[in-house]
């Protein structure tokens, strides 16, 4: 590859990374604004806002951008009135998919998400059509080098967590949704700020899919992730490590 085309390739990658970062910021700003509007603007007394601030810091969002979003939500200056909507459906291979969105235009979001599903071999169902296959949990993540698996396990159970998984990727602590704030506060005192702390959907069973279905599913997930209104997507697919490596190569 010539020096010029290599530079162009690097610039293209940087452009793609910048665009991705801007999209992440758009979603985080929306969550900060809604969280500040839904409760107190003080993160100490607003667990949802604290979770949003942790996520924004993890994404290296500038402090003034964060503060502006919180101020806008708390002061009610934001002209857009965001609604929280959950969509449920099936993706390729019969995989259950839950899409959580914050939107200022319910019709636009619904039609975009419906189009994404039908274009990638899936279909949207009614609310409740797949969520019964998931458990609502509080989820707290720490980096692997924060603590040993044993220390994290003991501290998490003492704090009221229901489950801890530690592996090469890090520590994943699960708890009842209502206990999220208390468990996070206890762990934060001992180990510092977590990588993330939020409510999540944990599948109670997984659906194994082949390479072809996985390839189409990942395209669907990319399209959903690319949508500014979509905050989070949860699924219950199970793919072989070898297939995963081939598809992410």
Describe the structure.
This protein has 249 residues and is α+β, with helices and mostly antiparallel strands. The chain folds into 3 domains: 3-75, Integrase, N-terminal zinc-binding domain (Arc Repressor Mutant, subunit A); 83-132 and 205-248, Alpha-Beta Plaits, CATH 3.30.70.980; 144-194, no CATH class. Helix content is 49%, strand content 23%. It has helices at 3-38, 47-58, 63-75, 106-119, 149-159, 180-191, 211-226, 241-248, and strands spanning 83-90, 96-103, 123-125, 134-142, 163-167, 170-175, 196-203, 207-208, 230-235, 237-238. The strands form 3 sheets. It has a 4-stranded antiparallel beta sheet. A hairpin with a 2-residue loop joins strand 5 and strand 6 (170-175). The relative contact order is 0.14.
Please summarize the sheet with the most strands.
4 strands, antiparallel
User: How widely separated are the two ends?
Assistant: 20 Å
Number of strands: 10
Task: Look at the structure and give the mean pLDDT.
Answer: 88
Number of domains: 3
Shape verdict = globular
At CATH level 2, the architecture of the largest domain is 2-Layer Sandwich
* Count of helical stretches: 8
Briefly, what CATH class of the largest domain? Alpha Beta
Strand order of the largest sheet: 3-1-2-9
Rounded to the nearest angstrom, the radius of gyration is 19 Å
Question: CATH topology of the largest domain, anyone?
Answer: Alpha-Beta Plaits
Kindly report the name of the CATH homologous superfamily of the largest domain. YebC, transcriptional regulation domain
Helix content: 40-55%
**Approximate strand percentage:** 15-25%
N-to-C series of helices and strands: HHHEEHEEHEEHEEHEEH
Summing up helix and strand content along with how strands pair, one would put the structural category as alpha+beta
Uncertain ranges = 1-15
């Amino acid at each position: 590859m010539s020096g010029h085309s290599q530079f162009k390739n690097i610039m293209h990658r940087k452009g793609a990374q910048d665009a991705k970062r801007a999209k992440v910021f758009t979603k985080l700003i929306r969550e900060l604004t809604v969280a500040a509007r839904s409760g107190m603007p003080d993160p100490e007394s607003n667990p949802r806002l604290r979770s949003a601030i942790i996520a924004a810091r993890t994404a290296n969002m500038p402090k003034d951008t964060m503060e502006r979003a919180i101020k806008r939500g708390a002061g009610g200056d934001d002209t857009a009135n965001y609604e929280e909507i959950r969509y449920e459906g099936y993706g390729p291979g019969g995989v259950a998919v839950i899409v959580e969105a914050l939107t200022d235009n319910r019709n636009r979001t619904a039609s975009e998400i419906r189009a994404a599903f039908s274009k990638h071999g899936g279909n949207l169902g009614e609310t409740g059509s797949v969520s019964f296959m998931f458990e609502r949990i509080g989820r707290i993540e720490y980096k692997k080098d924060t603590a040993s698996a044993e220390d994290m396990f003991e501290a998490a159970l003492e704090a009221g967590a229901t489950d801890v998984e530690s592996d090469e990727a890090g520590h994943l602590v699960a708890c009842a949704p209502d206990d999220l704030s208390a468990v996070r506060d206890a762990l934060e005192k001992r180990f510092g700020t977590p990588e993330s702390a939020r409510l999540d959907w944990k599948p109670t069973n997984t659906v194994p899919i082949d390479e072809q279905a996985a390839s189409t599913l990942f395209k669907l997930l990319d399209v959903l992730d690319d949508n500014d209104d979509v905050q989070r997507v949860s699924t219950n697919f199970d793919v072989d490590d070898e297939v995963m490596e081939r598809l992410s190569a």
